[in-house]
Write a structure and sequence with these properties.
Number of strands: 19
Number of helices: 10
Mean pLDDT: 82
Shape: globular
Oligomer: single chain
Number of domains: 3
Order of helices and strands: EEEEEEEEHHHHEHHEEEEEEHHEEEEHH
Low-confidence stretches: 85-91, 93-107, 160-165
Helix content: 25-40%
Structural class: alpha+beta
Radius of gyration: 27 Å
């Protein structure tokens, strides 16, 4: 027997530990070289771990285990070829696997287990995974299974209540209405990292937030007028985010303090603008940057946002795609937020919060008119950005968006 040890590889300079989020192959399966056998969840992304040789897979670690870089994950018996079955050497068996094998030999470790995305959906909807049938490999609960369970819960009729009019009342009992169950689940590695970074930003920066509002009438008219031509030429719609990103980039080049950061007692200024775009995913918020926003076109920004969003929601973002950024934009308006105070994305010094667009009455030339208005919020580190600088930044962004032709013509 010839065994190859599969160990957690070096992933990035700042990553010392990962979580084995799920096995992609069963214990004892024949795997081919470079075929993904499991997924690791790191602080920043989910990564596939490929087999280093062809042979029979032998589990060592279990799903949910926290593994240090260099820790043993599995072994591969290279003496086994495709179609040949040999007894598997002793390997750790989880309690869940043991119970599953005892009750039903046709089930596996995956039976009844939700994937990370499915688990999040079920938790948010307060649905017990045990009540959901899995259609994935070996009975795993997929994201689609979880979404169907949520839909079924929404349309399920409320239980009927029968009243017994003539039943004599003997005594009064106080009964609890609704479920009283609770559960404890391990916090995901990404959620732990997000929590730590948010607390660090609150504790280590002199963070303040300033507000303004912008009339988006001109932006809406621009999008309405040129949308069809834009889509025909570039294959993607002209959205609000590219216009906001381009406006911020222009002002950031004029106001380098807002585009700078503090590091080891020094101020680092940038002659470029890399804007991190906040993207919501099933496992948490990620902020991959778009490079050189000051130099690229609106369609380039829209295409890059779509690419990053698709990768983020499918867990395909690489560590390189998560690095960097000199400024961040987050759009809580997509979820209906009217006003918020976003938290700085360290080590950056400022973040712009976009919000919901609402028709509101405002005064224009002495007349009350209804306009599509959005509140803007700029959270900033007061150690490097003065109050007057933050206010001026927002005013300049507002002016560019209310007269977008000056943005298009770089005036």
């Amino acid at each position: 027997m010839s065994l190859i040890e599969m160990k957690v590889p070096t992933i990035g300079e700042s990553i010392t530990e990962v979580t084995l989020s799920q096995w992609l192959k069963k214990d004892g399966d024949f795997v081919k070289v470079d075929e993904p056998i499991c997924e690791f969840e790191s602080d920043k992304a989910t990564l596939e771990f490929p087999a280093e040789a062809s042979g029979k897979l032998i589990y060592v670690a279990n799903e949910g285990d926290d593994l240090a870089i260099g820790a043993l994950v599995a072994r591969i018996d290279t003496s086994v070829t495709a179609g040949v079955s040999v007894p598997t050497p002793t390997a750790p068996i989880s309690q869940h696997q043991e119970e599953a094998n005892t009750h039903n030999s046709s089930t596996s470790y995956a039976t009844g287990h939700p994937s990370p995305a499915a688990g999040k959906i079920l938790r948010e909807s307060d649905i017990n995974a045990a009540s959901v049938s899995g259609s994935g490999k070996d009975g795993r609960i997929t994201k689609e299974d979880a979404q169907k369970a949520v839909e079924n819960k929404a349309v399920s009729p409320a239980p009927s209540v029968k009243s017994e009019v003539n039943t004599p009342i003997i005594k009064t009992e106080h009964k609890t209405v609704g479920g009283r169950t609770s559960r404890v689940e391990k916090m995901s590695r990404m959620r732990k990292t997000i929590a730590a970074r948010l607390v660090s930003a609150k504790n280590n920066t002199a963070m303040l937030t300033t507000f303004n509002e912008v009339d988006l009438s001109a932006v809406n008219e621009l999008r309405k007028k040129y949308q069809e031509k834009f889509v025909a030429k570039y294959g993607i719609k002209l959205g609000y985010m590219s216009l906001f990103a381009k406006a911020c980039a222009k002002v950031l080049m004029e106001m380098p303090d807002v585009n700078a950061m503090i590091q080891d007692g020094d101020i680092i200024y940038h002659d470029y603008v890399d804007i991190s775009i906040a993207i919501s995913t099933p496992t948490g918020l990620v902020v991959p940057p778009i490079s050189n926003v000051e130099s690229i076109g609106f369609h380039d920004i829209e295409l890059k946002i779509k690419e990053l969003a698709d990768k983020a929601r499918n867990g395909k973002l690489t560590l390189d795609e998560m690095k960097g950024g000199t400024f961040t934009i987050t759009n809580g308006g997509t979820f209906g937020s009217l006003l918020s105070t976003p938290i700085i994305n360290e080590p950056q010094s400022a973040i712009l919060g976009m919000h919901a667009i609402k028709d509101r009455p405002i005064v224009v030339d002495g007349q009350i008119v209804i306009r599509p208005m959005m509140y803007l919020a700029l959270s900033y580190d007061h150690r490097i950005i003065d109050g007057s600088t933050s206010v001026t930044f927002l005013v300049k962004v507002k002016e560019l968006l209310e007269d977008p032709m000056t943005l298009m013509m770089d005036l």
